[in-house]
Design brief:
By secondary structure, the chain is mainly alpha-helical. It has a domain at 49-126: GMP Synthetase, Chain A, domain 3, CATH 3.30.300. 47% of the residues lie in helices and 11% in strands. The protein has helices at residues 7-10, 13-17, 39-53, 56-63, 65-69, 71-76, 93-101, 103-114, 154-169, and strands at 77-83, 86-91, 121-126. A 3-stranded mixed beta sheet has the order 1-2-3. It starts with 6 loop residues before the first helix and ends with a helix.
Length: 170
Amino acid sequence: MAKRSSPEQDVPPRAATRKPTPAAPLPPEPPRHYAPRGIAGLIAPVVRPAFRRRAPAAAQLLADWESLAGPDLSARAAPVKFAGGTLTLACTGPVAMELQHAAPALIGRLNLALGHATIERLRFVQQAPAVAAAPPPLAPREVIAPPENLPEGALGEALGKLYKAIRQRR
């Protein structure tokens, strides 16, 4: 059996001679300033997590699609997703082929509207975009005859037109 050594012998010789080092002093805390700060410095920590989930350019693109793309394109295609420089548009098959041929011009127009080169590629999914419901047809207007006791001449005609305009507003 081996002899048990004393507790002082269990410690290696180097560790026994090493002195404990004092902890590094903490840097002094910067003085607090109560002066006004820029709003960018205050908002950045708040909006940064939201922008990680969805970039502001993508949000602007999805929200302002009708004004960015124009009435003709926005009626035929709708943005579905924007990630990694690729804009995914939902449209029908024939429209997708047409837009694929016009992709460089469309990308340039959208990037110009956004203010920087955000969109690099277009991707198409075959899905009919949601079309706004057509307004209901207008009811036929009734014929409004002016009152019979109007004066003759230009004054009578002007009063008759005024009467018709007021009656049609109702």
